[in-house]
Amino acid sequence: MHCAVILYLPGYAVWFGRYCVHAKCSVCFCRGQEERKDGREPVVLLEVGSSLIPGLVQVPCQQRSMSLFKAREWWSATLGDGDEFDQGCLCVGDVDNSGSGQDKIVVGSYMGLLRVFSPRPSKPGGTLEPEEQLLEVQLRDPVIQVEVGKFVSCSDLLHLAVLHPRKLSVCAIAATAGNVEHGIQYQLRLVYEHNLQRIACNMTYGPFGGVTGHHFICIQSMDGMLMFFEQESYVFGRLLPGFLLPGPLSYCARTDTFITVSSTRQVESYKYQTLAVATDADTRKESEQQKVGSGKRLVADWTLMIGEQALDICIPSFNHSASTIFVLGERNLYCLKDNGQILFMKKLEYNPSCFLPYASVSEGTTNSLVGNHNNMLLVYQDVTLKWAAQLSHVPVAIRVANFQDLKGVVVTLSSEGQLQCSYLGTDPALYQAPKVEAREINYEEMDSEMKELQKIIKETSKVQDILPKADKEDDLTITPSISINMDTVSQAAISEIGGLTVPSITVKIKAKSRVTVLNPKLTVCVQPPLAVTREQFVLDSMGPGSSILVVFSAFLNGEYPPADLGGDVAVSYSTPTELNPAGVPRVAQCQFSLPLRLVSYPASPSKNANYKITIDTNKPPVNLSEIFPDLVEKSDEEHVNALGLQLIAGSRVTLLASKTSQRYRIQSEAFEDLWLVTKDLVRRFEKHFAKHGIRDYRCSFTGPIPLLEYFETVDRHFELRVNAEKYQDLLAERAVQFRAIQRRLLTRFKDKTPAPLQNLDTLMEGTYRQVVALADATEENRAALCQAFTRLRSATHLIILLIGLWQNLGKDQTAILESTLLPLLQDTPQLGWEESVDAAVSHLLRTCLSRSSKDQALNLTTSQLSMPKDTSRLKKHITLLCDRIGKGGRLSLSAESNAQTPIVMPGGCEPIPESDLEEGAADQESVATFPKQRHLTRKKGRQDPTEKTGEDSRTVPEDG
């Protein structure tokens, strides 16, 4: 025979059959365990000392398997749908004055519904019986709090106090007996009510001033006023000093004080006598009344700083010799004496939702029920956790009630209206897993069954429309359009950069649907330092043929030029099908390009510059006013051959066109600033000649690749990465030092024998300042590294463009080169640009750019990429890459016809032989590939070869 033992006070003993598992129980023995003749399960009774544990529940075993640590449901009910409840909406008591000692559950809601229940034992999962709900009344106002007490002066019976935002109602619940069992009727009768002049927050009650036999009520308003009611009469009101937000309020009968937690996060205590003689707060003219001398200034009896906001305050009434104050904070549980001293504090490792202290069996201790947001109900004896039970909901209010000779039932209420009466304990699990019968596998039957299933799958995929069919026309078409002019009123977050006004431009995205589109969401992405006014849009569902227009503005949001003026737009949506009405997820994308005018202003050309590149074309020279109509200032000259652009967050860029030859020079004081103007020039050339029907147009670059200038940008970026690692190491060292000093100081402070600090406090302060300074330097270095990476991207884009023009690379080869030199959109501490590019370039040099098919590497490496010590190896590899491309090497992802393409695992990077690195210097063919004349130089006084054609100095000036 099996038996079940469920204890109200857990943590003492759990019985399974004839075995008892003790849990910190000093005196615990079995008083009776005998089999009954009527066939029912035996009952085990436990004694602690000489008294039976209160709240013992005798429940026979159920043929069900449940978890050991769950709160056992004794009775439950669901209150309404969409209703809301809080911690003040629940109370228990003999509200109908039946005299049987059985409590009733009173629940009020924010929807104004007042319900009274009298629970009876039911089967788990059973429905609510009609006779269990005594009363349900719809009130006009929301119910903030309900309490049961002696609130009527001429009666010693219990009445119900209902607090509304602007009214306090005291009601009586009367029962009218009928002729049959279900004929008893309950009615709610209003005894008296008080209309409040202020919005109420919460209330408390008790024998204020030492009165006996009756309870008075104190209501706290939202603006910090305490309003006192002696039953049917309003007595006085007092404003709390320094009030900002209302906190929990409770009354201590032993000391006749009111306890609350103010917005300054400290517990405050006010005596009733002090509140009674303080200045009247019925009006807000306190200063005038204090001058008259009608009362004293209100001062707290004592205060205690707890450093956090309190969720609830509870003062147990079972011990009249000494009162304790329990305060539930957001992270801690405090127990205080009535004079404000801390008895103990329990740090909670979860977010509590409610709590309730109650009497303990042990002398001098108090048990507490604490509910949290993890659906757990925890039982603490002072600071020791005695039991943990799983609930089916998050409780916002907890009470303990007595029902039908059943004492100590835990009543919990959730914010959604789940009301549950449960007990803490264990039920034996009688479920046993069935034995697995071993049987031989028939592979022939399995093969035939698999073939049948595959046949069914194929037929189903042919008939049913699981996914939408792919059409030539897209379901959703996205079309971007950029405004011609800048916005009249700039939407930029930064108004000025370097004295120049930051403009913004309007971008319009038109989405047109061909079919029904559900829940479209549009996302806009631009690369920093560009930004948009809004990145995400939630659109309405669209029908067939409908369209939606989305408008936003783009602008510069950083003090450095961008590397890319493009942006991406993605729209995620769902298209419904016959078998999936909710829709199949789809994505539509498009790109847009912002104009150069967004990040630059027209300026006067500059003759001298440190960095210059020259672009050649095979067509006659073109007037710059025709190529850049939006950037050329109005001039009387018909032929404009010089154009100046001042980047808002960069240097000045000058574009010079030769009058007699087909050469165009771009020059600037910063190498990376040449990228945007050069890219825009090549793009406008293609558009201009295509407009005039010229098909054989070709743009080229004949000068050497400016690798030395490019490597300066690489070194600048790598130096900042090295600094970032140094700052990180220094921060770690200073943090270890700071913690060591703290431990030493803590040891000195805890030592009973006073000892000198030996300047540990000074050392700790200096270490703290160093930590703060290092953190600031790390943040500045991070911002500088972000800018350096953007400049490195601009310089890399320029190098890729020049290599493509130099060797006339196609789109496929340019894409491979771009993915090799720009593998990352942003640096990370784990993976940087240098090691990624080194691995990619090394792979190309060992495969498609190797000198012969026999030299292709076949070894596989699985080493992880790590930050190099310097950039010399990377520079050699990039130089060798350009040298082999200049000798006719072609970029390809496929292998040679007579060689096997090696597969390199991610992270693998085989070293290139040093003989290959020196190949460009030793080979005489490189002279023809890299001519001696320089179109990009930082040296002064060297003349450009384009001047031999006879142009004037304004067209192509001398470098000096």
Plain-language structure description:
This protein is of the alpha+beta class and 960 residues long. Helices cover 21% and strands 31% of the residues. It has 13 helices and 49 strands. Strands 44-46-47-48-45-49 form a six-stranded antiparallel beta sheet, with helices on one face. A hairpin with an 8-residue loop joins strand 42 (566-575) and strand 43. The protein is elongated and about 115 Å long. Mean pLDDT is 79; it is low at 1-67, 284-294 and 895-960.
Index terms:
alpha+beta; disordered N terminus; single chain; 960 residues; 13 helices; elongated; four-stranded antiparallel beta sheet; six-stranded antiparallel beta sheet; 49 strands
What global shape is seen? elongated
**Annotation field: number of helices:** 13
Helical percent range?
A: 10-25%
Strand content: 25-35%
Which structural class do you get from the secondary structure elements?
A: alpha+beta
What's the gyration radius in Å?
A: 42 Å
What is the structure about, briefly put?
By secondary structure, this protein is α+β, with helices and mostly antiparallel strands. The chain contains 13 helices and 49 strands. Helix 5 (674-691) runs parallel beside helix 7, helix 7 (760-807) runs antiparallel to helix 8 and helix 9 packs parallel to helix 10 (872-886).
Topology:
Layout: E1 13-16, E2 19-22, E3 29-32, E4 45-48, E5 51-52, E6 72-78, E7 90-93, E8 104-108, E9 113-117, E10 133-138, E11 145-149, E12 159-163, E13 167-176, E14 185-195, E15 200-206, E16 216-221, E17 225-230, E18 233-239, E19 249-252, E20 257-261, E21 266-271, H1 272-277, H2 286-292, E22 302-305, E23 310-314, E24 324-329, E25 332-337, E26 342-347, E27 352-359, E28 366-372, E29 376-381, E30 384-390, E31 395-403, E32 406-414, E33 418-423, H3 443-463, E34 476-482, E35 496-497, E36 500-501, E37 504-513, E38 518-526, E39 530-532, E40 536-538, E41 547-556, E42 566-575, E43 584-593, E44 600-603, E45 611-617, H4 624-627, E46 642-647, E47 652-657, E48 663-668, H5 674-691, E49 699-700, H6 707-750, H7 760-807, H8 811-821, H9 833-846, H10 872-886, H11 914-917, H12 919-922, H13 926-929
Helix pairs in contact: 5-7, 6-7, 7-8, 9-10
